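Record pair follows.
FIRST:
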Amino acid sequence: MFISILSLLIGFALLIWSADSFTDNGARIARIFNISPLVIGLLIFGFGTSAPEMLVSGLAAYDGHPELSIGNAFGSNIFNIGLVLAITAIIYPVTVEKSVLKKEWVFLFLSSLVAGFLIMDGFLSFLDGLILLALLFLFLFYVFSESKKSNVKNLEASEDSSGNQNKGRTWLLLLVSLIILVSSAKLVVWGGTNLALAFGVSDLIIGLTVVALGTSLPELAVAISSALKKQHQMIIGNIIGSNLFNTLGVLAIPGLILPFQIPEEVMSRDFIYMITLTILILFLSFKLKINRFGGIILLAILASYLYQLVWI
């Protein structure tokens, strides 16, 4: 019990430091290579902060606990919007570009609908996993295409000598901070899961709460750090990118490793909350800014969801 609590405390401390370093170096990479901060958020931050979910999902499926995997995927998406985006907007209103709502958000929404359609029959098959993985590769192709366009437009600026000298060091610091970010999240998940198991909590509930919250901590730490530095594109890019990796990558893993029956409550409760929060991103961004009131709305929906998990 003591070791689990100590793991939580150390994990949280490392999360705070590594998120700040990760955000700073991500912004430097964007400036050096003249890549849009949105692309950095979607790809580097989105994939990087989703690495814990992918790791947990793969290990859980391999160990014969696929329910924990799907709980982790949907739960993380719910926490990313209901907690990460909510807390960030309350701290500092988040600006959202119209192009994001027309492209990246649409891709996230459609991907969520496809995922829901595939598991509507109550079973996540190997074929379902392949379809989700194919959509993930389509998304990656789109992000790389956008990155290439950005580089072509700013080719001359990217040849700045001072920037070139810092490339190696910046990439190294970004990698180190990402490793610490993921490792610290792992510490939090390990400690939290052990505490939950000690109280006899089920795999699905652990996946939807403790593990989902723990693996969403990198997104929360990075988002708060980005908000304080007014890197709005990175915030929304991180959340949309992370949710896409969760929906298409994390959810695909258990299907590819160990196809399994989906608990009924996943579609009747978890999926509904996830798709509702995803739609709310669009509605709350009507004036291209998610303000503090919008953050409170998202937080209230998360509280309602947690109430259902614990008491109903």
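SECOND:
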Amino acid sequence: MNVNRRLAEPLIALNTPVRCHIVGIGGPGMSAIARLLVEMGHAVTGSDLHDSDVVEELRQRGAEISIGHQAAVVHGADVVTYSTAIPLNNVELKEAQRSGIETRHRSGMLASLCAATNAVGIAGTHGKTTTTALVTAMTTAGGLHPSSIIGADVLGGTGNVHGDGLLLIIEADESDGTLDVLPLSSLVVTNIDVDHLDYFETFEAIKECFADAVERTRGAVVLNADDEGSASLVKALGRDNRVTTFGRSENSTVRIMSSVPNGEGTLVEVQVDKQTYKCELKLRGDHNTMNFAAALAIAVRLGVDPAVACTAASAFRGVARRFAERGDFRGSLLIDDYAHLPAEISTTIDAVRSHPALTGRVVAVFQPNRYHRIATMADSYADCFTQADRVVITDVYASGTQKIDGVTGELVVDAILRSHPLADVVWAPSRADTVAAVASWITLGDVCVSMGCGDIESFPDDLRGILK
């Protein structure tokens, strides 16, 4: 077992009101916890470095939030919670420890929330956020009154919700050990791929993490029948009656019969218990078809009628930064996407290729993320851009990680050119270089997709800004 695996912290009893202070409350994961705690009747205070719409919305719900970190704000709290992004020498954490106030990593607070509910965890390397949001939409439509914790904004205001029942739909992240400690009633594993080697060290340890989560789950387990990384897990569980599978495989419990891109998104036909259902998704790409099938599989196991679930999915508008159309530039469409791993990049570019707006060429802009990831995985990006006509690679976005000498986005450029010497690949270390590499090339009918989980989100605005 990987020595880095997180150990479970003692649970916080949430059956009676507590006062919880949340450090970094404005982040997507922490704000979701705050929102749910408030709705459950607990007192919530928090702090963040910057004011924001999210912070103001939490204030409107009743949370007391200060801007900046100050020791005194933790006084009177029963528990102080924080994420991996918060350094352990943070003044609020240190004051809590000095004052004898309980502290919990985000994973520990999530575990306490799971223990107080019937928790359904949505795990996997890719697709967690969209699948969690889809399951929330389906179970809401099915009358199950779920609460949810989702790590991103959901379009149309159908994201993190608090229902009047005990069902909790939670995005269960493996990257920092959160999945290791969650007491889950049911579990979805969307897929298993290589990532977060700074935490897991090996792919075998990643697979072990998901296998352990399955073993601890007492209720339904949903697995990907088409996924190579999940194959050993599917095989090992055999005819375990907890298991439902999804995919295109003939043996899938929830089987995708067809998926056809159209003007609005994707028309999907899926078979459940030998009955076929149609769903007109407002989402593009094979990865979103699989996310839909995974969500449908767990929704059905939770008692939602498949037809009701499909209707809810048809109305679902997606999640922020997942294939988001961001306007045009000189008659070319701009798309922004969170894709940052090779499989995600490949499927996103494939989705661009099927977009009805594409009559010309595809330019893919990619911002590598985290120094350790690029140091260990740069070569794995060699073949994921093959469907793009031009590839622009920026420098690494740190995401709070320590810089490693010699690790830059140029490692990805080199990996691509070693495998594809004739590829049109541009090394653009600065944002100005990136804008120039796209602006000098793109024309009417082209599509530019910018990808990554850092500040590349602002690239479409920067590109359009040169026209002002």
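COMMENT: The first helix runs from residue 28 to 39.
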